[in-house]
Amino acid sequence: MITLHEVYEQGSEAVKAAVRSFGARHPVAGTDPDAEPDWKKAEQHFTHLIEVIMGASAFALPRTADIVRRAEREAVGFLLAVDGPAGYRCPICVKQQGSTR
Ligand SMILES: [Zn+2]
Q1: Distance 32 CA to ligand 1 centre (A)
Q2: Staple partner for 90: which of 20, 25, 86, 100, CB 3.0–4.6 Å?
Q3: What residue spans define the domains of the chain?
Q4: What residues does the ion ligand 1 have nearby, CB within 5 Å?
């Protein structure tokens, strides 16, 4: 499966900006807001996002390379769609926080 880092490396300027923005949704706890985000966490959540998309689209079907590629594209599309000046919360963070409360 593609990683967030690979998406960044291969992406257009818009994709790069969306990846940076997604990373910024994952600040390292206890550090100042200008510090580098928690990229490890952002990576995990991006992978999780792809899995969620695949789970929804690949119900009874075997997990083919084609399905994986489509899910990866959709995950990148999601990052581009939600990126904006208003900011947003990572859906995986929201999900995890929701389940622990
Ligand atoms: Zn997250």
Answers
A1: 18
A2: 25
A3: 4-100
A4: 45, 90, 92-93
- Closest by CA to 11, choosing from 72, 87, 53, 89, is 72
pLDDT per residue rounded down to tens, the chain (101 residues): 899 999 999 999 999 999 999 999 998 877 776 778 999 999 999 999 999 988 865 555 666 888 889 899 999 999 999 987 777 899 999 988 865 44
Instruction: Report the 10 Å Cβ neighbour count for 59.
Output: 7
Kindly give the distance from the C-alpha atom of residue 81 to the centroid of ligand 1, in angstroms, as a whole number: 16
- Identify the pLDDT of residue 88: 87
Rounded to whole angstroms, how far apart are CA atoms 58 and 38?
A: 30
Distance CA 51, CA 34 (A): 30
Q: How far is the CA of 97 from the centre of ligand 1 (A)?
A: 10
Query: What's the pLDDT at 58?
Result: 55
Q: 53: CA distance to ligand 1 center in Å?
A: 15
CA of 42 to the centre of ligand 1 (A): 6
